[in-house]
Amino acid sequence: MSTNNAQPGGDEEISREEAEEIIDEIERRRSLQGLAALAVAVIGICFSLFQLALAARSFTFVIPLPFVEGFQVSLQLLQANAIHVAFALVLTFLMFPASMGDGFVSRNLGRFVDAVEDAFGSDNPVATAFDGLRGAFRWMFLDPDRSRVTPFDVLCMIASGLSAFYFLTEFSEIQDMRFFGLEGGRPITGVYPFLEPILGGVPFVSEYSYAMILGVLGVLLVLEATRRTLGLPLMLIVASFIVYARWGYLISGNTPFLGLLAIPELTWPDIVQNLWYNTENGVFGIPVTVSVSFIYIFILFGSFLEMSGAGQWFIDLAYAVTGHRKGGPAKASILASGFMGTISGSSIANTVTTGAFTIPLMKRSGYSPEFSGAVEASASSGGQILPPVMGAAAFLMVQYTGTPFREIIILSTVPAVVFFFGVWVMVHLKAVQEGIGGIDDADSESLATHLARGWFYLVPIVLLLYYLIGARLSVSRSAWFTLVALVSLITFIAAYSDETRTFLLSSIAVIFGVELATYVVAGVPVSGLVGGNAGAGVPLAEAVAIVGPRIGWYAMLAGAVTMLVYSDVQSKVLDLNPTVQSAAESAGSTAGRDVGDNQLFRVGTFVVKSMEEGARTAVPVVVAVAAAGIIPGVISVSGLGPNLTSLLLALSGGSIVVMLLVTAVASIILGMGMPTTVTYIILISMLATPLVEFGIPELAAHLFILYFGVIADITPPVAVAAYAASGVAKSDPFETGVKAFSLSLNKAIVPFAFVLAPGIVLLREKANAADLPLRDRYRVVNFSDLAELSYSVPEILVPIVGVFLGVIALGATIIGTLYARVDRFGRVAFALSSLLLMAPGMLSTAVFDALALVDVTVSVNALLLDVTLRGVGLVLFVLFTLRNRRKFDAEGGEATGTDGTTRSTQTAAGSEST
Hints:
This is TRAP transporter 4TM/12TM fusion protein. The chain has a domain at 24-232. The protein is mainly α. The chain contains 42 helices and six strands. The chain is globular and about 90 Å long. The longest helix is centred in the middle third of the chain and has 30 residues, at 405-434. It starts with 15 loop residues before the first helix and ends in an 11-residue tail after the last strand.
């Protein structure tokens, strides 16, 4: 295969609409029009506004109302969580169909009616009745074209709203029921007396409290939303835990192994109260609390960043950095997917949106469709483990471990960089093997030109890191301030031009000066002075300290005024997402006005569309954490936790390697087709404690589970990210999944490396560790630890260098090429060196565990053994690298590909920078 240069553009690229259709089809979302689409937009915007209010003012804030002073809202945590979940449930029932007619019930009902018609004739009254029943069922539940909201959806939305309304209006009763139980609550006729004439004589209504009925309905609604958004398997898993909570007491405690799962008897009111009216466990437990506090605001930040045009700019930046290099399109795909991981919390959305541009370029450069899709899927799945934003599971880790997010960022950085470096190495070696070049210089933009055109997109990322690490603000406050800065920056850039810059800068100065003066004179902002709330003035320095941090809001106001005055202003550098332009034009067409090119209207559309898209993106995540929270809720209320830990420790036979393998396999199997967030919540509830009992640092154990949950997205047979990539690449889905898993194999080895050598994730055992509980024995390293060379060299530097060299050896093993083709014996040697360089502890521990089975105990210095084994791996790596280089030189500087043909010296690994 001769070297090809990728050409941008082309017929193979799929449009934005096609990419969205692929995502909707995979996620089974509706494509709504008209009133239903408007309802989704309005509810989604309200959802985002609610979350923004919480981020800005916590649980007490004022809702501005016309002609009145303002309505103050003060929420309890349970109320905020309930509203959060209610918004997600309503949007779920709008956006996801209950059935498309391809399910078990729908198919068999249709077959049954057809059989009745065949048996009795279509004109028979029985057949007619059953046909009418089928028609009513279809009208009530079915949406085969994903285009209409059914009556069943409306009923579910009403029930979701009633539940949230009860939390808001009857919270005192909910508090009382914490002591008296759900049986102590009032019936529905007691809560709403006007229903007494209608429902007063119904036995069921008077027998159960309204709280009990709403709790049962709420849990069922969460299960139904889970089925629609995340699939039937997860719904059945969650439902099985609820069944276990009720009837797990039937398990005999005398049964071997299974007896450890015996629990005390619980009544339905006990279960419902713990699952629905509790912030410690259940639906509104820790996962939903994290979603309310952290996850949603970061999803919203990503949505604003994407709608601002940053997504395409990051893709173009990746091509500007790497496009001209060997295998440039694939390397650009890796960088672009990493950048997009900051924006998108979904492996599928990241794969399709980035892959719509990168996969066709990879194919045209010479990579096969399957390999092109695999590269994109593999890199896109890594977005959830790449700091600074990472995925939703990282925020759950903050809450479950009590660790500041800045420390999560620090300990996650090295393994994430190792993963992306490993994929980079493999695509480079594949380019060497196939003789694949890059994009012509004439077809790629220089890095300096690209940075000059969109440098401002990097500002929010830098600010986020500053707030999190430098200023040490909380996660939610950091995200809020960064979001405000992003909107201010986009508004300023949109209003800035050669014609408007004087007016714009003057406006900012005037607004800032007037606000400063009112504080100095009256001690209040301009709005307070106008409202007659003037008081004593404050010193100038204090006024500057108050007004200075608000510069973003002033820039936002000045930008809006400037765009209002200069209605025809157009920014030279701002390129908003095409979705924003399309929405602006659509809104203008509906209103009968041509406002699609009005910059102020476009910026307003950008804000509104970002809030809507943020809500759409958040819905599956919120449903996932609500459903998954039921599992730790059941484990907690039933007292299963300690017994489950004992069972797993017994099954592992005391072997840490067996326990790690069980955890890894369970993570992959459970994570197939499910969000990483769900996998993480379920597995840390069941497996984190047993891992810590083996002496593994708690943070490393949580990160281990997270990594294997991410791997599930690209593991056949249910490799959802890989199958999404195959839809763009028009490749074989299963083969794409196999290649994606192969490219991500280092992601499966690195977790074993850092749990057995915590220095890789920058964790160090505390000096008084022996006197501390297992969970508190490790801490994140600091600069003094790094300066202590006797510690940092053998326990941090050597293992980190080892994993980086190990992924190169792994690349040679999988791709089969380094400088020249690697023979079978060489692959075995590189595989062994990779294991010794990356995770020698896994091999040595397995050997010691095997010896322990035959009562042979070996006592060695663990650190010395670790360094020695890595040294052996390094020797193997160097020897076989030199052997491969000599083979390359003996062939006259030609790399032999897998097909037996040769590549010129210019395509060899050492002839061009990677």
